Amino acid sequence: MHTISPSFIREILSAAATDGVLSLAGGLPREDLFPTTAFADAVATAVAREGHRILQYAETPGDLRLREWIARRMTSTHGMPTSAEQVMITTGSQQALDLVAKLFSDRPVAVENPGYLGAAMAFAANRVETVPVDRIGDALDRIDTAALVRAIDGGAAVFYGMSRFQNPTGASWSAEGRRQLVELLETRGVWFVEDDPYGELRFDADAEADADADAADADAADADAATSARIDRGLHTPVAADAPDRTIYCGSFSKSVAPSLRLGFVRAPVEIVRELGRLKQAADLHSSGILQAALVTMLTSGPFDLDQHLRRVRAAYRVQRDALHRAVATHLPDATVGVEPAGGMFLWIDLPESTSALFERAIARGVAFVPGVHFRADGGDTGMRLNFSCLDPAQIETAVARIAAAREDAAP
Ligand SMILES: Cc1ncc(COP(=O)(O)O)c(C=O)c1O
User: Fold this and answer.
1) What distance in angstroms lies between residue 94's CA and the mean position of ligand 1's atoms?
2) Are 110 and 149 in contact (CB under 8 A)?
């Protein structure tokens, strides 16, 4: 994998935090959408109900009530029958990636390219050799299975990737992409580590609900309708739903509720959950008990309603995504937008020139983005990741106009 420069990450973060810089670089959820009041009430309720015990050490796999809640949601919303035994709470899904890296540290791990920086960091920190496997297709909607087969032949026992609303490209796998991977997992007996923190942020879902109903009613013999229904299933469900015995699914409350909870989870076959539990015990004994108790209280005791909350978040992000699309079309007409993200927080664009060379000039113009080279194993330098979850539409428009101005600064 491309070596990640911590100094570059520091540079982005400090540049993005500078007064007057509009940041399309980060990956933070929008703060004014956090359920702050509902969470404060849930903390008070949980403390009142549980008393001193809420501050005591707790069990490594996590609060049983929260694990049961997750198992129910996996079963109902994600199409993946799950028991609480198959769920372990982690300190953010980032910890799940770290534990997976530890569990499989004796073999190379195949990782999608481009891919999530934090996964690359987890593998590198655990000295795990990674083998890049490209996402391919115009919409990056599948992986290069021939490359994955080569990685498996070379000893990889695990493939890491994101099936929905990928960080950094926003891409999701098509029905065919999912089918190819599931077949490989089953025939070659490898594990898929499915990282799905954005799965609940399918902000086209509400608008498409009617279309879904129409597709379901369509003539079953109509191949197009059948295909789109399957692709749709792809966006509704993780790959883990199709290959539950070969997938280690990593979920998170960071994007659906709030990142400072540092609560995520793995859903996997029981024997893998046990192994990961052993590693977690060595790492931190357990994730915060009081935060787990408060979260499950908020999720189950009302008046907070997660689905209603998610509808608000999706509606806001959808407007911001559309604003980013419009701004790119207006100010960067020569940009290639390969993927129309149906969820998540990111849009990936390609420009004809080096985007890492553009970065400094963009900062001077008051805008930050992440040059694509930092996500790519092959050193390709023409892409950039643009985040749309943090800024409002007017700020997004200004930010993209500044990128265009920075490109002009370079013109001879
Ligand atoms: C793809 C991906 N995986 C995992 C994480 C880690 O999330 P957390 O540890 O907050 O659950 C992130 C955070 O941005 C992410 O983008």
Assistant:
1) 6
2) no
Q: What is the DSSP letter of 372?
A: G
Residues in contact with ligand 1 (CB, 6 Å cut-off): 27, 92-94, 116, 118, 162, 167, 195, 197, 252, 254, 259, 264
Ligand 1 atom nearest 253 alpha carbon: 11
Q: What is the pLDDT of residues 85-114, one digit of tens each?
A: 999 999 999 999 999 999 999 999 999 999
162 Cα to the center of ligand 1, angstroms: 11
Residue 381 CA, ligand 1 centroid: distance in Å: 24
State the pTM of this model.
Answer: 0.92
The dotted CATH code for 6-34+307-410 is: 3.90.1150.10
Structure confidence at residue 130 (pLDDT): 96
My answer on whether omega of the bond before 303 falls inside 30° of 0, hence cis, is yes
Strands (E), 93-252: 109-113, 130-136, 142-143, 158-161, 191-195, 247-252
pLDDT score for 19: 82
Residue 193 Cα to ligand 1 middle (Å): 13
Architecture of domain 53-199+238-301: 3-Layer(aba) Sandwich (3.40)
Beta bridge partners of 158: 109, 191
Q: Mutate which of 111, 116, 348, 390 to test ligand 1's pocket (most atoms within 8 Å of Cβ)? A: 116
* Mean pLDDT, residues 318-334 taken together: 97
Q: Please state the rounded mean pLDDT for residues 247-263.
A: 98
